[in-house]
């Protein structure tokens, strides 16, 4: 039975996963090596709880319980030494994830399941750094976590059926639906999103249409809830570039990152989080 979840990484995805898990009734410890990231994550979660009470999406007692369920730390050992389930939500850098999983394997109890929130990378390769590959899996959440209903569940080569079943139960308790994916670079959603977004960037670079009209065309013509350029801004253009580079390396030419994406990242135009990407944002 899963009672405690440790979330590793206090960025956009980590804090969203921690919020959702705490609201679902799990005890949650959110860990990040940065004190600033922990402070920002706590403020974000508490503001989101307050806002959702004011809007009537949750009850006051749910806000109170979620806050009780949450704890924060900068120490990895403290976060995981008594946990049942770990969700790593660090940057999409394979070396970083492998390093974290080696530590998780050392510090987490033998029964604990180790999940990575990667959107593109190999859970088999990550799991191979541990002595428990059958208990390792990828759990791909979507941003914003508290609103998006899907979790992609990706088996590694050695992931056991029992691990998959527990992950699906955890996802269901969080109010999510799941799709089960056999490991392949990019899984289902990231392969599609990266291709669509990259083509939109190339069309913008070629002068086919403006940012606004490209996004409007896909929203109104193809019934996408969000335009591909707006979505890339939400994900973070640096994150999207890392994903594109990984898929390009793994799957070939059709995933070559748009030169415009590379240029924007070099210029520091990273999307919503920097205040400017393909669109401009008021981050106050």
From TrEMBL:
Binding-site positions, NAD(+): 9-14, 32, 92, 97, 119, 143, 273
Pathway annotation from the record: Lipid metabolism; butanoate metabolism
Entry superkingdom: Bacteria
One GO process term, biological-process aspect: fatty acid metabolic process
Gene Ontology terms for molecular function: NAD+ binding; oxidoreductase activity, acting on the CH-OH group of donors, NAD or NADP as acceptor
InterPro entries listed in its UniProt record: 3-OHacyl-CoA_DH, 3-OHacyl-CoA_DH_NAD-bd, 3HC_DH_C, 6-PGluconate_DH-like_C_sf, 6PGD_dom2, NAD(P)-bd_dom_sf
Annotated site residue numbers, Important for catalytic activity: 140
Domain called 3-hydroxyacyl-CoA dehydrogenase NAD binding: residue spans: 4-183
SUPFAM superfamilies to which the protein is assigned, alphabetical: 6-phosphogluconate dehydrogenase C-terminal domain-like (SSF48179), NAD(P)-binding Rossmann-fold domains (SSF51735)
Domain 3-hydroxyacyl-CoA dehydrogenase C-terminal: from-to ranges: 186-281
Alphabetically ordered keywords of this record: NAD, Oxidoreductase
NCBIfam families from the UniProt entry: PRK09260.1
Protein family: Belongs to the 3-hydroxyacyl-CoA dehydrogenase family.
PANTHER family listed in its UniProt record: 3-HYDROXYACYL-COA DEHYDROGENASE FAMILY PROTEIN, 3-HYDROXYBUTYRYL-COA DEHYDROGENASE
UniProt name for this protein: 3-hydroxybutyryl-CoA dehydrogenase
């Amino acid at each position: 039975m899963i009672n405690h979840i440790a979330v590793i990484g206090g960025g956009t995805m980590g804090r969203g996963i921690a919020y959702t898990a705490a609201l679902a009734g799990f005890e949650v410890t959110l860990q990040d090596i940065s004190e600033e990231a922990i402070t920002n994550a706590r403020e974000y979660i508490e503001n989101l709880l307050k806002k959702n009470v004011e809007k009537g999406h949750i009850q006051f007692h749910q806000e109170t319980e979620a806050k009780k369920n949450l704890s924060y730390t900068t120490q990895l050992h403290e976060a995981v030494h008594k946990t049942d389930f770990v969700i790593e939500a660090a940057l999409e850098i394979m070396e970083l994830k492998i390093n974290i999983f080696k530590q998780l394997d050392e510090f987490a109890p033998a029964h604990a399941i180790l999940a990575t929130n990667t959107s593109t990378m190999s859970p088999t390769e990550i799991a191979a750094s541990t002595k428990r590959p059958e208990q390792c899996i990828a759990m791909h959440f979507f941003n914003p976590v508290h609103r998006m209903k899907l979790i992609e569940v990706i088996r590694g080569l050695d992931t056991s059926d029992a691990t998959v079943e527990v992950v699906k139960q955890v996802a269901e308790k969080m109010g999510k639906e799941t799709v089960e994916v056999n490991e392949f670079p990019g899984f289902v959603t990231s392969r599609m999103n990266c291709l669509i977004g990259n083509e939109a960037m190339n069309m913008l670079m070629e002068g086919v249409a403006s940012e606004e009209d490209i996004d409007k065309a896909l929203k109104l013509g193809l019934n996408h809830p969000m335009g591909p350029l707006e979505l890339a801004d939400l994900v973070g253009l640096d994150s999207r570039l890392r994903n594109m580079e990984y898929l390009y390396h793994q799957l070939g030419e059709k995933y070559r990152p748009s030169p415009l994406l590379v240029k924007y990242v070099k210029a520091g135009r990273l999307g919503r989080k920097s205040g400017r990407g393909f669109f401009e944002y008021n981050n106050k």
